[in-house]
Amino acid sequence: MRSDRLRIMGINAHPDDESSYSGTIAKFANEGHDATLVYVTSGDKGHTTIPPNELTRIREKETLNACKILGASAMFLRVPDHEIFDNYDVEHKVIEAMRKVNPNIVITHDPNDYDRDHWTTSHIVLQCVNSASLKHYKTKSPAIEKIDAVYFCDTVGGLHFDPELWIDITDTFDGKIKALKAHESQLKFMKDLFDMDMVDFHTVTASFRGMQASTKYAEAFRRFRVYPHIRASASLPK
User: Fold this and answer.
1) Strand order, beta sheet including 149-153
2) In a domain, 1, yes or no
3) d(CA 153, CA 119)
């Protein structure tokens, strides 16, 4: 076990949302770090014919398969799909998840993403990063000391997103696509409803971000920067 082992936590609105940064998760896992992917909903409304209870079972099974491919653990909070609101119950679940994992780094949706569940999840995460360290706020797990960094992953289609960090995922791209294909029900749903090929979509996005960063495939991020999560540097980074 490596002495500098990190705990990486991705917090997603729905199953398959991790596909925006799954190559990075696989990269961390391959390097010996711990990766946990949290799903606020189980995507129970993301289909035209499969009823919610059955769809929850299907999508959670698919997600477990995807996480296994990526080398990550999965955690389901089971908030109803398209019913993520910034309230006590949802925040309480997210805070407990953070305390259970005690992550060094959190990755979540960008606040400018296209879907309300996405941007609400983002805002909830930002609030809970601070609340998770409050000793007088009680959940099943004890308060954690701090979360070192929060990163926003790329928006769907890269719209309204200005990256400041690119991770080379050329070596883990095949695993990214294999994990994406594990979400069979969602790939079919997106194809039937929007005529959208999810594999092609994520391939083009990773290729474009790779072009920006002078590599074959990359994933883009920006860091959450607000007091007190900003730290001065001793010098300009190289």
Assistant:
1) 73-76, 34-39, 7-12, 105-108, 149-153, 218-223, 165-168
2) no
3) 12
CA dist 188 and 174 (Å) reads 20
Number of folded domains in the chain?
A: 1
Query: Do residues 183 and 67 touch, judged by C-beta distance below 8 A?
Result: no
Write the pLDDT tens digit of every residue in 162-219.
999 999 999 999 999 999 999 999 999 999 988 999 999 999 999 999 999 999 999 9
Tell me if 231 is assigned to some domain: no
Q: Which residues contact 174 (CB under 8 A, 6 or more apart)?
A: none
> 232, 221, 238, 214: which is closest to 28 by C-alpha?
221
Helix (H, G, I), strand (E, B) or coil at 17: helix
Q: Which residue has the tokens 């960063």?
A: 213
Using DSSP, state whether 6 is helix, strand or coil.
coil
Task: Determine, yes or no, domain membership for 232.
Answer: no
Residue 100 sits in which domain range? 7-223
Q: 90 Cβ partners below 8 Å, 6+ apart? A: 40, 77, 79, 84, 124
pTM value is 0.95
